[in-house]
Amino acid sequence: MTLHQFYNIGILIPAFNPDDKLIYLLDDIHQQTKFNQKIVIVDDGSLNQDIFEQITTKYGQSVVVLHHDSNQGKGQALKTGFQYFLQHYQFINGVATIDADGQHKVSDLRNLEDNFIKHPEALIIGGRTFDEAVPLRSRLGNLVTNQLVKVLTGIRVQDTQTGLRIIPINYVKLLISFPTNHYEFEFDMLLATKKAGIELVEVPIQTVYLDNNATSHFRVIHDSLAIYSRFFKFVFSGVSSFVIDIVIFYVLIHFMMTYTHDFIIWATLISRVISGLCNYVMNKQLVFGTQTRQALWKYSGLFLCQLVASGLLTTIFSYLTALNQATFWISCIKIMVDLGLFLISYQIQKRFVFW
């Protein structure tokens, strides 16, 4: 029995200015009998339509070609394809995505589908090996992204930028509501798995870079900034709140000219309450986008723990270092304490508060 007798899996190919490699890919797919159905290509505003006309002539109705009037980004192309599958193929179990540039092997797609049989509710991704044969920009980009995914979510994957994936249909329904439309959409797809309760399974695949990845439309600076924007937003939120906290603390200590244990605690309390409110609003609206009341209660609990820890640790280290009579040095100690608490706080907020 073939796979499609058990699972109906659609194949989605986003394409922007593709060349003949797209036709070669379709040829390879059609040579596999279990891949000869439910193929959708989304033309993301390509300038030259010759390739798509050839595909329509050669494959007819066996390949559906959808068109964007203008380039809207890979993420939007994927969402357009997802919506088409949901509207026209209501009984599919998942959607496989594969890039149009010939850098994914159909044999690897078969391996992913075999794993999807074992994990039908999981996001299956193809993980490449990034050795010295891989272009430098791809090695560096993937290394940085891997580390950020690990920091942001605790998820450990070898290849965060792979376009070869099989997405369970329940997750597809959620993905079409994601706000991102470019390459960061695939990054967000990984980040959101834990929140959505989706298992992530990585399957080793071949690493293929044709013509030094010349056909890739990934814009190194622009798309990298978009991918890492969530972490940058959190850093901005944290630094802004951090500055507010320290400035208020310094002003209170400086003008009151008292360095007692009780006043350090009170100065910490006042500065932390004000900066904490600012931090909560920025994280909720700018970083994580969570609107639930439950998040407020969780954040409040974390906030109180941080407040107590900051006040006690600042006081203890000030007395241990005999620097409790100088406004500047007390503020420096508070900076070091709060920096450590900031790093711990991010992990807790991402995993338990705004997840």
The CATH C-level name of the largest domain is Alpha Beta
Number of strands: 7
Catalogue the unreliable spans: 1-6
Number of domain modules = 2
Write out key terms for the chains shown:
single chain, 355 residues, alpha/beta, 2 domains, seven-stranded mixed β-sheet, elongated, Glyco_trans_2-like
Task: Describe it.
- This protein is α/β, with parallel strands linked by helices and 355 residues long.
- The protein folds into two domains: 3-227, Spore Coat Polysaccharide Biosynthesis Protein SpsA, Chain A; 231-353, no CATH class.
- 57% of the residues lie in helices and 10% in strands.
- The protein has 13 helices and seven strands.
- The chain has helices at residues 21-31, 50-59, 74-88, 106-118, 136-153, 169-175, 184-191, 193-196, 220-227, 229-256, 261-287, 293-320, 327-353; strands at 9-15, 39-44, 63-68, 94-97, 123-127, 165-168, 200-204.
- InterPro entries: Glyco_trans_2-like, GtrA_DPMS_TM, Nucleotide-diphossugar_trans.
